Amino acid sequence: MHLNRRIRIQLALFVVVALGACAVLAFGYLNAPATWFGVGRYTVTLELPEAAGLYKTGNVLYRGTEVGRVEDVGLTDEGVEAVLSLRSDISIPADLDAAVHSVTAIGEQYVELSPRGDSPPLRNGAVIPRDRISVPADVNSLLASTNRGLEAIPHDNLTTLVDESYRAFGGLGPELSRIVDGSTRLAIDSRKNLEPLVTLINTSAPVLDTQVDTSDDIQAWSAHVANIAGQLQTHDAAVAGVLQTAGPAADEARALFERLRPTLPVLLANLVTAGQVAVTYQPALEQVLVLLPPFVAGLQGTMLADRDIKSPYRGLFQNLALNVNLPPICTTGFLPPQQKRAMSLVDFPDRPPGSLYCRTPQDSPFSARGARNYPCLTAPGKRAPTVAMCESDEQYVPLNDGYNWKGDPNATLSGQAVPQLPPGSPGQQSAPPAPPPVPALAAAEYDPATGTYFTPDGRQYTQADLAQDSPRDKTWQAMLTPPGS
Fold first, then answer.
1. Strand, coil or helix: 436
2. What confidence score (pLDDT) does residue 384 get?
3. Tens of pLDDT along 395-430?
4. What is the pLDDT of residue 426?
5. Strand bridging mode 65-75 / 109-115
6. Most exposed: 81, 295, 371, 485, by fewest CB within 10 Å?
7. Contact at 8 Å (CB) between 320 and 362?
8. Residue 251: is it exposed, middle or buried by C-beta count within 10 angstroms (0-12/13-18/19+)?
9. Dihedral sign for Cα atoms in the order 337, 340, 342, 343
10. Which sign, positive or negative, has the C-alpha torsion 217, 223, 224, 229?
């Protein structure tokens, strides 16, 4: 047969296209290098107690993803061995479990690989032992058991079950379709987020254990909730009244806050400061609350002696003792006498710098309740005049024993001279003139029995009317009587 040139060219192009299609089919679809020569794959042996319907070319899945196929299934002296051909580009841990599953009750079988934990990857020639493999129940036995169960049900009851099932689900095709579609989308999304779901399942055990451990508390909480619900049901009318009056009460409260708006923020700000002070002085306030009841009881006890006397002149039993200038006024630690202001001044100058308080020893009788004996709330057992001294390691140091005057404590401690008022200040203009110097007084001791005494010059004198046996009257009336009367 004679073919012209054009036909020969067309036949050559057809052969080239056919060979290209066969190559694409062999390498792309059939994966000929891996299927025929094992390129990019490795084999693992699976020791099975029985075949369980597994067959050659069955799928092998790892976490729901196809990673290989069953290359061969054969008998051994101890059971069945299945050779798995797995893809080498997917790393599968060697520490894993294998299970033979079925797509449906009577469908095709496949192998599911499930890792136990982090471990080195599987290698070519690895063997998965029988104790890590599970196979499904025999389908024939399952079908036989199902058939026997259906035969045990009376025919009339089975017909009723089928009819009632039809009435229950008849006409619900669209709803069932939506349920199936939603379940399918849920399964697809779950497969996309397989790693987080696996992590959640693996880490849910501690959470479930805490629920088991706290089951008693949960039951008690449920009992309390049930009790509260029962109380609400019992007092339903009262609860309804509260709900009905809650709205008007809220309106009244809002109106009250509106009226108090100009002053309420200031009040709350002041209460914050007062709250901080109360928190700081909480031990002292607690002591006051503890000592106040016995103090009130003591005051009430002063009236117990007269409680049975029917007289309008009932009173309190108390002891009145007057101590005038005992102990004397404390002047140590205050401004010097040169800076005392006249009582006639009515201005209000700035407070002098420094801390002015009685700086005598803490156990001296002068101003026992003064600033130097303030208890330090942040340092129990310590007393100091200022908060800074309380919160530091500094200890209170007195100026003197209290019987000798010392002026401005700041100037005294720093070695400076005692400050004086400047010339022409209001204090100096209104202050009275200084008294003239008083001559030195001589003091002498005398004998009350004889009236004799010694003067500073060493001479002895006698004052007869000072003696105890003096004939003159020594009453206070005689002292007021003029001489010679």
1. coil
2. 92
3. 888 887 777 666 665 555 444 444 444 455 444 334
4. 46
5. unpaired
6. 485
7. no
8. exposed
9. negative
10. positive
Q: Which H or E element spans position 460?
A: strand 460-462
Q: Which two tokens stand for residue 272?
A: 């914050």
427 and 341 Cβ atoms separated by less than 8 Å: yes
User: How far, rounded to the nearest angstrom, does the alpha carbon of residue 345 sit from its chain's CA centroid?
Assistant: 57
Strands 80-87 and 460-462: unpaired
Residues across the chain? 485
Q: Tell me the β-bridge partners of 87.
A: 41
Rounded distance between C-alpha atoms, residue 462 and residue 445, angstroms? 12
State the CB neighbour count (10 A cutoff) for residue 68.
24
At what angle are helices 215-234 and 236-259 packed, to 10 degrees? 90
Structure-token match 């100091």, residue found? 384
Token representation of residue 381: 């057992």
Strands 41-48 and 126-128: parallel
Amino acid at the residue 322: L
Which residues, including other chains, have CB under 8 Å from residue 197's CB and lie 6 or more apart?
A: 190
Q: pLDDT at position 2, please?
A: 66
Q: Which residues contact 57 (CB under 8 A, 6 or more apart)?
A: 69, 70
Which amino acid makes up residue 440? Answer: A
* Per-residue DSSP letter, 99: E
Tokens of 100: 């033979």
> Given phi > 0 = left and psi -120 to 50 = alpha, else beta, which region is 63?
left
pTM over 0.85: no
Per-residue model confidence (pLDDT) at position 32 = 52
Which range is least confidently modeled, 65-79, 88-102, 139-153? 139-153
CA distance 469 to 485: 21
Eight-state DSSP code of residue 59 = E
Tokens describing residue 64: 């729901």
Buried b (16+ CB within 10 A) or exposed e, 278-301: eeeeeeeeeeeeeeeeeeeeeeee
